[in-house]
């Protein structure tokens, strides 16, 4: 599982000349916090390159209003490329986590640029392949991992305690431990679980002194054990049931 990815952002993979050329195709646009940069089901075809800020990429689930967060994207990331390359509706919604700036490029201009720059076209194909593989891993995790495993993995990733880059939700506590600043419903959306299931798993992690929780805050007290739980190992006393809860 991974929301942040582990590849260099699209704009950072370009040469200075390529970056200047692609950015010149569009115009900057500012988005307020919680604004939709792209909307699932929309038939627009423009692409975005994030300049400042972070966004979530999410899709609707079978549970109606519930959404599943598939990714977090930051500066340099290319968004909306699938709708620019085929005639189908947008496959996901992109929402600004805070004030965000992006370069908006029309689908026609972006396609022409790719036709004239085969190396950049290859980078887009590589990004699409990586994101499809990541989506497959997320679906596999939903089918095969317990809520506790998925939660432990997500907290490890977002806090950077597993060696991944820190995301927009992470900071360092005064005690030098890592802190993830997310509400329980947001954590639930990031792992495809209910809020109630996440609350139950957090209670287990608190009881084993692996995390400490507060208002929209999860402090990681024992990152090594959290990572072990993410990999499917038992907790301190080894007594967890098939759902990752105390036996």
Topology:
Blueprint: H1 16-23, E1 27-31, E2 36-38, E3 47-52, E4 55-60, E5 67-73, E6 78-79, H2 81-85, E7 93-96, E8 100-105, H3 107-116, H4 118-144, H5 147-159, E9 170-172, E10 178-180, H6 184-191, H7 195-207, E11 211-214, E12 217-220, H8 223-230
Helix pairs in contact: 3-4, 5-6, 5-8, 6-7
Quick structural summary:
The protein has 247 residues and is an alpha+beta fold.
What Rg is obtained from the alpha carbons, in whole angstroms?
19 Å
Class per helix and strand makeup? alpha+beta
Proportion in helices = 25-40%
Gross geometry: elongated
| Overall pLDDT | 85
- Fraction in beta strands: 15-25%
| Element order: H for helix, E for strand | HEEEEEEHEEHHHEEHHEEH
Task: Please tell me about this protein's structure.
The protein is of the alpha+beta class. Helices cover 37% and strands 21% of the residues. It has 8 helices and 12 strands. Strands 1-8-3-6 form a 4-stranded antiparallel beta sheet. Strands 2-7-4-5 form a 4-stranded antiparallel beta sheet. Strands 9-10-12-11 form a 4-stranded antiparallel beta sheet. Strand 11 and strand 12 form a beta hairpin. Helix 5 crosses helix 8 and helix 6 crosses helix 7 (195-207).
């Amino acid at each position: 599982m991974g929301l942040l990815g582990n590849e260099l952002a699209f704009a950072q993979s370009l040469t200075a000349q390529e970056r200047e050329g692609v950015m010149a195709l569009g115009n900057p646009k500012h988005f307020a916090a919680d604004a939709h940069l792209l909307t699932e089901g929309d038939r627009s075809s423009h692409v975005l390159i994030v300049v400042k800020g972070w966004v979530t990429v999410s899709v609707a689930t079978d549970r109606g209003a519930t959404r599943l967060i598939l990714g977090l994207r930051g500066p340099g990331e290319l968004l909306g490329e699938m709708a620019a390359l085929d005639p189908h509706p947008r496959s996901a919604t992109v929402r600004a986590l805070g004030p965000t700036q992006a370069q908006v490029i029309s689908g026609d201009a972006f396609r022409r640029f790719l036709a004239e720059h085969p190396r950049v076209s290859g980078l887009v194909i590589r990004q699409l392949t990586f994101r499809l593989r990541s989506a497959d891993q997320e679906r596999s995790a939903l089918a095969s991992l317990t809520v506790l495993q998925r939660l432990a993995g997500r907290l490890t990733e977002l806090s950077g305690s597993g060696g991944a880059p820190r995301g927009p939700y992470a900071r360092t506590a005064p005690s030098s431990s890592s802190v993830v600043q997310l509400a329980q419903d947001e954590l639930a959306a990031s792992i495809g679980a209910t809020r109630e299931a996440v609350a139950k798993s957090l209670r287990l992690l608190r009881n084993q002194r692996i995390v400490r929780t507060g208002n929209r805050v999860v402090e990681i007290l024992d990152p090594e054990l959290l990572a072990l739980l993410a990999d499917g190992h038992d907790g301190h006393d080894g007594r967890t049931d098939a759902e990752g809860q105390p036996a």
